[in-house]
Predict the structure.
Amino acid sequence: MDAELKEKLTELEKLLGKMYADLLDISQDVISGGYTAFPIYIVYEGELQLGQLMLDAKEYNLPYNFNVATLEDFKEQEIVFEDKEDEFKAAYGDPKKHICVFWIIGEQAGFIFYPTATRATDLN
């Protein structure tokens, strides 16, 4: 991992620490609304056609846009394959206590499961 990417991931993890409670509340709304048992936040720069825009970087003065999507969306897009679903759920943990972030920075992408901040990039 190059130094610039490592710096951006460290910045993202700090941002997640500040936003954790709010993201967890949104996750509970998504779960209780019956949309999915496993919400996934997508954090990215630029444009993306996956999930629903939740926080626009410019509007909220953030370094990244935040979308919210579902595990089902990720399976449909073959980001998480069927044979890796159980492994994904185990890494995610309890969605009532943890959040999952799929980050896209440049050409790199991966998962962060927070608060444990476990990076899993081999789930596809």
